[in-house]
Amino acid sequence: MSSNDVPKTGRLSEPGEYDEGMLALLQIIWGDGFLSPGGADELARLLEGSDISGCAVLDIGCGLGALDEFLITQHRARSVVGVDIDPALLILMQRRIERAGLAARIRAQHVDGGPLPFPAASFDVVFSKDSMVQIPDKPKIFGEVLRVLRPGGRFIASDWLRGGNGAYSPEMVEFFRLEGIAYNMATLEESAAALRAAGFVDVEVRDRHGWYLTLAQRELEAMEGPLKATIVGRIGAERAHHFIDDWRQLVVVLERGELRPGHLKALKPK
Q: Do the beta carbons of residue 208 and residue 158 sit within 8 Å?
C-alpha cells in the first residue's frame, strides 16, 4: 500500500452532519468547545513570539469557535473570521460566540473548499489549529493564505503531520480506518518547503510530537479509567468502545513516530 492509498470510506460524518458522538467525546477529552488538543495552553505555545493584538485574523477550520474566543479575549486580536466546511458546526459556533457577547468581533462563515472567499490582502494573520490536514492540495491552500494576507502578514498554524515519507504502515492505515476520515499529511520539512515555494519567508517549524505523545497516553488512561463511565453515559457503550480503540491506535502511531503534530509559522513579504 502506497502513502496515497489511505482508506476514504467509513466516514463518521459528512459536512453538515457532524457526528454527535465524536463531538461529545472530543469535548469530554479536550474541553468544552475544543476539537483539537491542548486548549488555551497549546494556543499560547503556538502564539509564542507572535503578537496578534489589534490584528484581523482568519481562522481556517474554526470548528466550535473556542479558540476564536481566546484569540480575542486572551491574545487581543481585533477581529476573527472563522471558516469551516461544516454548517452544523458553524451554527453551534455562532451560538457560542453570541453567548460570550463577542458577535461584534467574531464571525462564522461557511466555505465549500476552493479559493478562500475573501479579497486579496484582507487579514493580518491567517491561523489554523489542526484542520489543514484535511486539505489535500497544500500548495494551493498555502497560495490562498498568502493571497489573503496583507504584506508583512503572518501564517500561524498547527497541524497533524507525519514522520517519514514512505508507505503508511498497517498500524497507520488501521488508525485511519478507526478515525473514519482520510488524513492528507506531509512532514514538517515538506510543509516548510511548500510554504517557501508559495512565496512565504521566515518559515519556522516546531515538532510537537513529544508533547502530544505524553498527553495522548494520559488521555487514553483517563478514557479507560475515570472518564469511561462519563463517555459511555454520553454516547453509549458501542461508540465508547470504538473511540477508545481509536485512541489506543492513536497512541500506537504516535509511539511509532508516524503521527507528529507540529507548528508552522511564516511571513508574507512586505
A: yes
Which three three-digit cell numbers place residue 92?
A: 453551534
The CA distance from 155 to 146, in Å, is 8
CA dihedral 75, 78, 83, 87 (to 10 degrees): 100
Rounded average pLDDT over 176-184: 84
Across 63-92, average pLDDT: 96
Burial class (CB in 10 A: 0-12, 13-18, 19+), 190: middle
> What is each CA distance from 102 to 14, 70, 73, 89, in whole angstroms?
28, 11, 9, 17
Mean pLDDT value across residues 53-82: 97
Q: Is 41 exposed, middle or buried (0-12, 13-18, 19+ CB in 10 A)?
A: exposed
pTM to 2 decimals?
A: 0.91
Side chain identity at 37, as an amino acid letter? P
Q: Rounded to the nearest 5°, which phi and psi values hold at 41?
A: -65, -45
Q: What angle do CA 167, 199, 269 make, to 5 degrees?
A: 140
Contact 137, 198 (CB under 8 A): no
